[in-house]
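in:
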C-alpha cells in the first residue's frame, strides 16, 4: 500500500478518495504490470525518453506520470514537473508560452532534465501539435514530455515517432477488486461480496469509477452491498438487462417495454447508459450467434441516433420492437 493508502485517519467521506489513495510510486499502481515494469526500468536508469500514454479513462495514465516524477525528483518533484490539461487549454499559445517558459527556466544542478505532462493531448489542435513537435525538438536536452491521450490516432505522426508509446488497457476485475477491498479495509467500511462484485461491474475497467462509487455507497449506509451500489450509481442489475432483452427476443414486446420503462423512470438511468450496458452484456444473453449479431447491429444504430440527438426512449423502444418482430 502507498503512503496515501495508509493515511486513513480522516473521517469517511471528508476527502476525495481517488486523490487520497492515489498511488505514490509505480509499484503501488494496481494492474498494468507489464507497462509498469517497462516504465520502472527507465526510472531506475534515470534515462527517460519522451513518453506517450494511450488508453481509456481511469486506468493509471496520470498516476503513472506523477509517480515517475516523484521517483525521479523526490521531494523536489513539483518544481521539476509541469502538468497541463490540453482539453482546457487547447490553443497554440499554450504550447508557445507556458511550455516554453517552463522549459527555459533555470534547472536544479541535481537533475539533467525536467518533465512536462500534457494530459488529454489528443484535444490539441493540429497547429498546437505542430508547435509542440518543434518545442520537443528545441528543448530535448533539458526537457522530457509525457503525453496522455485516449486515442493515439489523433496525435500527429511526427510526435508519435518521437515518443515511446505505452498502451494502457482497461483494468482487470481482479485489480479493481483488490484496490476497492484495500480502501474499504483502510476506511473501516463493511462490505459484502455482492457489493464488491457490483462495484467491479459498474467500474468496467475504470478504477476512478470504482473508487468514487465506493465512497458514494459508503456515505449512504452502514454496509456497502449490491443494492446500495446499484442505487447510488443508477445502474441496472445485469439480470434486469438480460430479462428485458430476453422478453424482446421471445416476441413479448409489452414486457420488454415495461422493463425499459422501469429502468428509465424508476432506476433513473440515461438512455446512453442502457446502451452501454446492453453492449457489454450481448454475449452474456445466451443468444444464438445470428441473434447476437442482430442485437449488436440494433445497438449500434440506436447509439448513433441517440448521440445525434434523437429521443432516447423512442430509440430504445424501437430497438426492442425490432428484436420482438424478428423473434
Amino acid at each position: 500500500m502507498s503512503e496515501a493508502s495508509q493515511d486513513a485517519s480522516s473521517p469517511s467521506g471528508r476527502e476525495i478518495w481517488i486523490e487520497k489513495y492515489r498511488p505514490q510510486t509505480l509499484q503501488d499502481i494496481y494492474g498494468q504490470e507489464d507497462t509498469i515494469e517497462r516504465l520502472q526500468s527507465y526510472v531506475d536508469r534515470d534515462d527517460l525518453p519522451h513518453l506517450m500514454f494511450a488508453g481509456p479513462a481511469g486506468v493509471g495514465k496520470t498516476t503513472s506520470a506523477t509517480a515517475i516524477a516523484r521517483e525521479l525528483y523526490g521531494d523536489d518533484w513539483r518544481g521539476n514537473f509541469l502538468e497541463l490539461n490540453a482539453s482546457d487549454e487547447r490553443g497554440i499559445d499554450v504550447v508557445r508560452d507556458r511550455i516554453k517558459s517552463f522549459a527555459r527556466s533555470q534547472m536544479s544542478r541535481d537533475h539533467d532534465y525536467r518533465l512536462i505532462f500534457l494530459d488529454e493531448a489528443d484535444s490539441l489542435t493540429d497547429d498546437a501539435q505542430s508547435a509542440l513537435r518543434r518545442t520537443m525538438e528545441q528543448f530535448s536536452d533539458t526537457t522530457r514530455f509525457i503525453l496522455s491521450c485516449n486515442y493515439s490516432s489523433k496525435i500527429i505522426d511526427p510526435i508519435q515517432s518521437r515518443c515511446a508509446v505505452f498502451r494502457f488497457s482497461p483494468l482487470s476485475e481482479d485489480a479493481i477488486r483488490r484496490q476497492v477491498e484495500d480502501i474499504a479495509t483502510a476506511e473501516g467500511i463493511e462490505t459484502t461480496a455482492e457489493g464488491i462484485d457490483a462495484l467491479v461491474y459498474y467500474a468496467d475497467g475504470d478504477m476512478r469509477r470504482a473508487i468514487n462509487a465506493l465512497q458514494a455507497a459508503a456515505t449512504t449506509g452502514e454496509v456497502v452491498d449490491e443494492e446500495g451500489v446499484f442505487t447510488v450509481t443508477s445502474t441496472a442489475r445485469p439480470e434486469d438487462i438480460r430479462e428485458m432483452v430476453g422478453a424482446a427476443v421471445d416476441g413479448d414486446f409489452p414486457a420488454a417495454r415495461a422493463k425499459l420503462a422501469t429502468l428509465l423512470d424508476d432506476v433513473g438511468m440515461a438512455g446512453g447508459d442502457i446502451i452501454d450496458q446492453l453492449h457489454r452484456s450481448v454475449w452474456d444473453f445466451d443468444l444464438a450467434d445470428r441473434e447476437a449479431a442482430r442485437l449488436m447491429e440494433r445497438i449500434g444504430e440506436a447509439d448513433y441516433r441517440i448521440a445525434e440527438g434523437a429521443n432516447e426512449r423512442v430509440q430504445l423502444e424501437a430497438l426492442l420492437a425490432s428484436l420482438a418482430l424478428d423473434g
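note: The beta strands are 51-54, 81-85, 114-119, 143-149, 164-167, 190-191, 223-224.
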